[in-house]
Write a structure and sequence with these properties.
Length: 254
């Protein structure tokens, strides 16, 4: 058996729709007795034996071995360096991230915030203070959500798809506040309004078109950022599942 830690560089560009491969090699170099002493049998060729029904089962990685937030798709075993006297076996553990956690804990609440933000178009355009209270409350809710889930998000020097969703949510809320200001100006709903003769129809049009367009654009951009990575992840998983056997093993040269 093996007890220890494996360090592996990860590609977080498609986070949270990412997969990863943990790879290491096992070399049959020496034979040890149970007490830890070297078995002096003067052997030079050591072989890994995979014959028999139960032999391969020892190489099946248990699901509990997967890191927190990941699940194992398949375990790949490959013979390498076949010309050497000692056998060398390369083991790859194919993992996929549990992306549904981030969907329910981060993305879905963000979507709900944007949808609730859209409802401000039904506020009277002259009630500027009510609109700003509505938008400000959503801003504070978004920051509170980010404070809670920040520990579960990776710290990177680049923007992941989930980072873009958070940024776009903030931008939609800010744009809604701007449209509320413009609507109030045209409707003479503020003390600093210009002489627009209280054009309520124009104020309603500016507010409704602006908020609706920004909300629609938000969901289009979120789909464009997320769906290609999700589709790529599903293809990768399907390819591995097509190669594995009933024990979730992929055997190459074994």
């Amino acid at each position: 058996w093996f007890e220890g830690h494996l360090c592996n560089k990860m590609d977080l560009e498609p986070f949270p729709f990412d997969t990863d491969d943990v790879e290491f090699e096992v070399r049959g170099s020496e034979c040890f007795l149970k007490n830890g002493e070297t078995n002096a049998n003067f052997k030079t060729d050591y072989r890994w034996l995979f014959s028999g029904t139960g032999a391969l089962e020892r190489f099946v990685i248990g699901r509990h071995v997967a890191p927190h937030g990941w699940s194992i798709i398949a375990t790949e075993i490959e013979y390498v360096n076949k010309k050497q006297e000692q056998d060398v076996v390369r083991i790859r553990i194919h993992l996929k991230r549990a992306w549904k956690y981030y969907m329910y804990k981060v993305l879905f609440p963000m979507f709900m915030i944007v949808i609730v933000n859209f409802m401000q178009i039904f506020f009277p355009v002259t009630e500027f203070s009510s609109k700003m209270e509505h938008t400000t409350a959503l801003f504070l809710s978004t920051f509170a959500l980010l404070y809670v889930v920040a520990a579960d998000l990776p710290k990177t020097s680049f923007q992941t798809p989930i980072d873009w969703v958070i940024l776009l949510t903030m931008m939609v809320l800010a744009a809604t506040g701007i449209f509320a200001v413009l609507g109030a100006y045209f409707a003479d709903g503020t003390d600093h309004a210009f002489s627009f003769d209280g054009d309520i129809a124009k104020a309603n049009a500016i507010n409704a078109i602006g908020v609706s367009s920004s909300t629609a654009l938000y969901f289009v951009l979120v789909f464009g950022l997320s769906f290609p990575n999700y589709r790529r992840m599903r293809r990768s998983i399907a390819k591995l599942k097509a190669q594995r056997d009933k024990d979730n093993l992929i055997l190459i040269g074994v």
